[in-house]
Specification:
Two copies of one chain form a homodimer.
Chain A (H helix, E strand, L loop, with lengths): L2 H8 L1 E11 L4 E13 L5 H9 L11 E9 L9 E11 L6 E6 L9 E7 L5 E6 L3 E11 L2 E10 L5 E13 L2
Amino acid sequence: MDINQFIKSSFGQWRSQRSAHHLIFSHFEAVQSVIDIVGLAPDDPAVLALCQNNDIDPQRIASPFRMSWEGESDWNEDQNEELKGTTVLVPVPDLSFPNRGKLLRDQGYAETMPAVGDYHLTDDGTFVLLTQYERAAAEEKIWFVNPNLRFRISMIKSSDGVGVITASFSSEIRSLKS
Amino acid sequence: MDINQFIKSSFGQWRSQRSAHHLIFSHFEAVQSVIDIVGLAPDDPAVLALCQNNDIDPQRIASPFRMSWEGESDWNEDQNEELKGTTVLVPVPDLSFPNRGKLLRDQGYAETMPAVGDYHLTDDGTFVLLTQYERAAAEEKIWFVNPNLRFRISMIKSSDGVGVITASFSSEIRSLKS
């Protein structure tokens, strides 16, 4: 499985159940959401803008895509905060190691700002993404249990990468093929 | 990491947060529990009995241990059902492939009966356990994020091994070293 195959396998609409464990206080959070993943043309203006902002030659990129989500949390004290968003993602494979690369995003998860992560694909087809933010670090693993079921584990760590603050698990069931 | 190292790293008391996703109905279940894992002597009567019941030469086994748990679920309609149990586990490494083997248990998770699972340790130190029950199959992955934090993913599948019925994620934080 290469990065293009992994991304194409992800296209479609997914019904996601996410459980977050806030480890210090043993708190559980449950989030239900719908996630849409659609392919973008390599010359889509949003893709070209993201490449330009990161000084990346658009010829070097793998399948770019857009991910959108809309969800509900059982732990939403601020009723005005919407669990809704959309982000453009552009993988840039490493020239020497094709299973590794950078993932450009015009908006990150842990902080609402552009982010660049380091990804690699393991031999057993797990996509691993490490992203360093200013105040935190995120580590994410995504794999397919079967073509219509994806699991996603993510950790938010303190910025020194040592302490795990939040661990979360998502099970994502395909509801529509794109 | 071999099986004995993996088991010894697990000794102690763990505070566990488990989220189960019942996939068909998109239901969330949250369980908090305390798990105790203690080593047993290879000639402990419970270990010898489990070997005998499975026709295993006690000379062949790796570190046997006892796991006990006591927990509370937020989804416990039957108030009489206690999330409490204890089980003796005995790994029996394969003679030819030391990172694979059988795991004997005097009580399984998915059904309250003795069970024999197939385990293997992956190159990155993940313990994978597959157990076939009469009416279901269970697949479990356990790995250490750091010496005091374990993650555990488990799936209950239909007995044909195809449909995933329940997916669950546990984060386990060490509270006491044994």
